[in-house]
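Subject: design request, 293 residues
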């Protein structure tokens, strides 16, 4: 039993790191733009299919797909912002309208991926050498360890960017007080476009990691990751990237440890139970107080 629990903790940290990246990019969007991006999961799966296509057609290893995914999804996010969002933000209720519009975008993106890759689940038949590594008394897939290392680097880089650079501080200021940032002369439109592009780039990179960590993916997997992203955002505190980081790891640990003691089908119920409990006890989320200051 101890081995199973330890295995659940290790896998929970790895999976939770993936969830944390999804939540951090999604909460960045909501915090800056007040956009409910229900298509975020499709962006993630798009990154998975991009890595699959590069590996299948060009033999490019998944790790080398990371910069390609980052650049291509950043450009796509920048263009998508100017195409979809400026008029949307002028509506009376941009949050509801963004949810409806991005839900339509999610269906369209899933249909495009279905058209290109068909409905079969895909996986990247790539393995590291050695295939697994010993972590204490258990063996863990090298691909998962590499993915977790990349998650740590990306989370640290995003945290440094938000707290140590001028554009990052501007993004945090927009999250805290969007009206005040306009008064000091910041170009909110360009900042918003950058936030959408950055969140899209993180989603694309996360998709590559999803292809490494999880056994398979298909064009309809995006909705699942969108739901997980929203759970992480609400659990951590709306608009708080660090809260999303903590919540993602907590949710991953709860999900993986639940499979040790409960049937696998019951694992999502534990995560939702934690979400409900946190909302009842602390409606603003685990770190929501920072977003309220």
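Subject: RE: design request

Done. Sequence follows.
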């Amino acid at each position: 039993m101890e081995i199973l629990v330890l295995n659940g903790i290790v896998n929970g940290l790895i999976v939770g790191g993936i969830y944390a990246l999804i939540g951090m990019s999604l909460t960045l969007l909501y915090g800056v733009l007040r956009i409910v991006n229900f298509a975020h999961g499709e962006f993630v799966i798009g990154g998975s299919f991009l890595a699959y296509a590069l590996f299948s057609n060009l033999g490019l290893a998944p790790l080398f797909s990371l910069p390609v995914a980052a650049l291509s999804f950043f450009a796509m996010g920048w263009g998508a912002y100017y195409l979809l969002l400026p008029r949307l933000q002028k509506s009376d209720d941009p949050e509801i309208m963004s949810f409806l519009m991005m839900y339509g975008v999610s269906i369209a993106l899933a249909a495009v991926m279905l058209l290109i890759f068909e409905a079969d689940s895909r996986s990247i038949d790539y393995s590291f050498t050695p295939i697994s590594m010993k972590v204490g008394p258990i063996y863990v897939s090298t691909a998962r360890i590499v993915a977790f290392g990349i998650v740590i680097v990306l989370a640290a880089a995003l945290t440094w960017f938000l707290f140590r650079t001028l554009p990052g501080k501007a993004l945090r200021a927009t999250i805290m007080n969007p009206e005040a940032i306009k008064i000091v002369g910041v170009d909110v439109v360009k900042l918003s476009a950058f936030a959408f592009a950055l969140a899209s780039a993180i989603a694309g990179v996360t998709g590559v990691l999803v292809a490494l960590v999880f056994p398979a993916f298909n064009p309809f997997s995006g909705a699942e990751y969108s739901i997980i992203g929203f759970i992480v955002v609400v659990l951590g505190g709306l608009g708080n990237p660090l809260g999303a980081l903590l919540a993602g790891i907590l949710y991953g640990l709860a999900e993986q440890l639940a499979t040790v003691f409960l049937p696998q089908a019951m694992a999502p119920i534990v995560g939702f139970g934690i979400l409900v409990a946190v909302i009842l006890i602390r409606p603003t989320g685990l770190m929501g107080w920072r977003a309220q200051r």
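The beta strands are 132-135, 138-141.
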